[in-house]
Design brief:
The protein has about 150 residues and is mainly α. The protein has one domain: Arp2/3 complex 21 kDa subunit ARPC3. It has seven helices and no strands. The protein is globular, with a radius of gyration of 16 Å.
Length: about 150
């Protein structure tokens, strides 16, 4: 194996482990921020979508959810985010635009069909939650539906 790809894979694994550590920090004030994304998304921007997905999956596995299926959904979403941002960056497009498209799409899906995201019990408060989503990306369906 060449040295450069081995270094990139090693750096992706290292950043995934750091993201895992940041996401594992307990506390209600820190948990919704998904701080590990700050370490894993630059891997997608610098090294491409595949290594970005690797780092995002490793970082996302540290999240604590009440429902195991919610963890799978969060990790899949973080993987899609890393793949989309990495694809935009590798094509010379702005990764910020990719993030805006992804989170705006999730907000629109939340407004149009909240039952698909498990948010049907939050009908009256869905608009404020959807408007906060781009600022607070780790607010998932499972964490919001547990609040009543």
């Amino acid at each position: 194996m060449d040295r450069l790809p081995a270094r990139r894979v090693g750096l992706a694994l290292l950043c995934g482990a750091v993201g895992f550590g940041l996401n594992a920090v307990p506390g209600a004030a820190v948990a919704p921020l998904l701080l590990g994304r700050a370490v894993t998304l630059p891997i997608a921007i610098l090294f491409g979508p595949s290594l970005g997905v690797l780092a995002a999956v490793i970082g996302g596995l540290a999240l604590n959810t009440a429902v195991p299926l919610a963890l799978v959904a969060i990790v899949v979403f973080l993987s899609v985010e890393a793949a989309l941002i990495g694809a935009f960056a590798s094509r010379g497009r702005s990764p910020l635009v990719a993030g805006v498209l992804l989170w705006s799409g999730l907000s629109v899906a939340m407004l149009i069909a909240p039952s698909l995201l498990g948010l049907s019990s939050l009908r009256q408060s869905i608009v404020p939650i959807a408007m906060q989503l781009p600022r607070m990306p780790s607010r998932t369906a499972s964490s919001m539906s547990n609040r009543t």
